[in-house]
Amino acid sequence: MSKWVTILLQASRDFGRDPCPGPKLEGYLKDAGFKNVQAFKFKLPIGPWPKDKRLKTIGSWNLVQIEDGLEGFTLRLLTQMLGWQSEEVQVLLSNVRKDLRNPKIHAQFDFYVAYGQKPEDAA
Q1: pLDDT per residue over 63-120, tens digit each?
Q2: DSSP codes, 5-37
Q3: Is 27 left (phi over 0), alpha (psi -120 to 50) or beta?
Q4: Rounded Cα distance, 107 and 43, in Å
Q5: What is the pTM of this model?
Q6: What does the radius of gyration of the chain's CA atoms come to, in whole angstroms?
Q7: Residue 55 neighbours by CB under 8 Å, 6+ apart
Q8: Which of 5, 48, 95, 122 is in Cβ range 3.0-4.6 Å of 60 for a Cys bridge?
């Protein structure tokens, strides 16, 4: 799975996209003129491995949504940006799916939330 993450992040950068905009959300809002900006970072598990019941549920749903989009957001970057063959991508994704479902691998990612108030003098 770490190979997939590394390749995907680099392919996103090569495509001119920031694959990790979360830490910058607070700055974006402040730069846009929002006031009382609040920013938070949450650790989201991937899969039902957490002991905490709430996090186990979140992780289970997160695994479903990641698996649903895995092929779509990987195929374009790897085939069009890096020149991989579709079959090569499918082999990689087969291993990623196995890792995501492995209860011994405690995968998670940072999820960022930011919000603020529009200034009163803004139209």
Answers
A1: 999 999 999 989 988 998 889 999 999 999 999 999 999 989 999 999 999 999 998 8
A2: HHHHHHHHHHTT--S--GGGHHHHHHHTT-EEE
A3: alpha
A4: 10
A5: 0.79
A6: 18
A7: 45
A8: 48
